[in-house]
Structure formats: C-alpha cells, structure tokens
Design a protein that fits this description.
With about 325 residues, this protein is α/β, with parallel strands linked by helices. It contains 10 helices and 8 strands. It has an 8-stranded mixed beta sheet with strand order 1-2-4-3-5-6-7-8, sandwiched between helices. Helix 4 runs antiparallel to helix 6, helix 5 packs across helix 7 and helix 6 crosses helix 7. It is globular. Pfam families: Abhydrolase_1.
Length: about 325
C-alpha cells in the first residue's frame, strides 16, 4: 500500500559540517518505523515506504552521511570522511529520533542496514519496539573477505577483472584496501575507473538472481556512484569500526525486542550462516529462510516481508509513541 508524498522533510544539522536529509510519511500518531538504507552509501529507497500502511505507521526515512540528499556528499573529494563512521551514523539516528520526538520505533532495513540497526539496538534497546531485517549482515572481516575475495571461487572471470582493476603494487593485498586507496587518489580519472570496476563486481555477484538485473550497480552515475563506492570502501576497509563478532556477542542486549530475520538461501553476497548465527544468539528473533531468493529478493521474499509487517501492525496503535508504552509482543 503506497503512502502519500512526505508530510515533513528537512535537513538536520548533526555536527561536523554534516546535515542529514530526512522525511516522514503516514500517520504521525501511529507506530513509527525507521527505514535504514543499505550500501553503505546507497541512499534511501524511494519505494520501501510503500510496504507500510500509512493509516497505521509513521514512516521515517533518511540518507546516511555523505550520500543521497544529505550534505556534504562523499563524491566531493574534499569531504572529510574521518567524521563518517559507524559511531557517527548511530549518533545521527539518535539525533533524528530526538528531533522528531519519537519515543520508540520499529527498525527496518537490509544488507548493510542490518549491521547498523543491530549496532543501534544494542546501544539503545529502550528505544526499539522491534526489528525487521532482510539479507542479514554483521560486517565482519570474514563476511567482507568472502564478498570481495572468497567469491572468486564461483565467479573467477569476473573476479579477475575486479582484481586487475588494481594497479600491480596493490594486487597482492586486500582488494578492499586497494580500492579504498584508489577512491582517495588525487587523480579524478583513477577514482572514476575504480568506481566503475567496483560496481561491475557488485553487479556480477547479483546478476544471476531473479531481481538482480545486470548493471544494477553500474546504473549509478556521476556523484551517486562516486559517493556510493567511496563510502563502501571507506567502511569495509575499516571493518565498519566494529570488533569481529561484536554484534553477535552483543545479541543478549536485544532480549525482549522481537525480531524477524528474512534471508534468501541463494544469497551469495551474504551467506545464510550470518542470519542463522544471529537467530541462535537472539532468543526473541525468528529466522525466515526464503528458498528461492538471493540478495535482491523475490516475490516470495516480498510476501515474507508483508507478513512480518502485518505481525507488527497489530501493535501499531496511535498510543504507541506515548510514554509508558511497552515493547510489542507477538499475538
């Protein structure tokens, strides 16, 4: 069910010279849901809000630092990336919650968004009504290594082209570190070539999927592509500033928060093991495995998401953001 145009929107000054673009739709007295986008650096989805009934939900979306309509853009080589880290994004989410006067919210997102959502919920469980994740990641070193090196076992030709996009001195090291260096090169042509080659690899990983049309990442052009790749390489080169298994070890902090983890069995980008491990460590989470889906989804995955939202809709009452409202439970 589609919602109308945003009721409110704005640029929130979050410090460090950054202003965060946000917008909200639906019922301002309903259950607030925060849509967290993936990437990192992809920018907010223009369609994700359509899954939420505007009569029941107050839907908030935003662009993380450096991308979308937030300013400044990471596409600008002068943009200071030292103030664009996971901790900065978590602080931005809290600043947005406070700015909007939201007491508690439902968190929803996929891929990189699941990492950010888990980190936020573990730090601020008192503000979280529930969580719906798709394509679960925890941005661990082994997950990043699989995506940008391990997958050469299945995509040798495509990976060789990705690897050969690095100059000879960088080919013996970590390709993510190598591309991060290229994205910060003073030569604009070097940066442009690196962004093109990075997106070509991302395309190859999902090209076999039902919804993974070839060229999906490469369709990004200009500043959008530059910001996406610069932010991706920045975060993955630094392992998202998270300790290995930090989010898995922190799962007990999620006790009492209901979660639904929706994951495609055919997901090459983020193998099912990550979602399975999280579900075992988080007693209030339910893992839904979608047999015909990869990272980009399928009609079956869409149905699973619709069902998950419907289960939370039973708690989406106009009083849900008033003081004293408890954490929702499944009926």
């Amino acid at each position: 069910m589609a919602t109308a145009e945003p009721r409110r929107r704005g640029l929130l000054d979050v410090g460090d010279g950054n202003k965060l673009y946000w917008e909200s739709r639906g019922n301002p007295l309903g259950q607030t849901v925060l849509l967290v986008h993936g990437g990192p650096g992809s920018g907010r989805s223009r369609t994700a809000h359509k899954a939420f009934d505007p009569n029941l939900f107050h839907v908030v979306s935003f662009d993380q630092r450096g991308c979308g309509d937030s300013v400044p853009s990471a596409a600008d080589p002068s943009t200071d990336m030292s103030v664009n880290t996971t901790e900065h994004l978590l602080a931005d989410m809290e600043a947005l919650r406070d700015h909007l006067g939201v007491r508690r919210w439902l968190l929803h997102g996929g891929s990189w968004a699941s990492t950010l959502i888990l980190a936020y919920a573990q730090r601020h469980p008192q503000f979280v009504d529930g969580i719906i994740l798709i394509g679960v990641t925890m941005t661990r070193a082994r997950e990043i290594d699989w995506l940008y090196r391990g997958l050469r076992l299945l995509l040798p030709d495509e990976w060789e082209r990705f690897h050969n996009g690095l100059p000879e001195p960088l080919r013996n090291g970590d390709p993510v570190q190598g591309y991060w260096q290229l994205m910060n090169d003073p030569d604009p042509q070097v940066v442009e070539n690196a962004a093109r080659d990075w997106c070509a690899w991302e395309d190859a990983v999902i090209a076999h999927e039902t919804h993974g049309a070839p060229g999906q990442y490469s369709a990004r052009v200009g500043a959008e592509r530059m910001a996406f790749v610069r932010i991706c390489t920045h975060y993955f080169a630094h392992l998202a500033w998270l300790g290995e298994d930090e989010l898995l070890r922190g799962a007990p902090a999620l006790a009492g928060i209901p979660g639904i983890l929706i994951h495609g069995r055919l997901d090459l980008s983020a193998p099912l093991l990550t979602a399975w491990e999280l579900a075992r460590a988080w007693p209030d989470a339910e893992l839904v495995v979608v047999e015909d889906s990869g990272h980009t989804g399928s009609s079956t995955m869409h149905a699973a998401l619709t069902d998950a939202i419907a289960r939370f809709a039973g708690t989406a009452l106009p009083t849900s953001n008033r003081p004293g409202t408890g954490t929702p439970r499944w009926s």
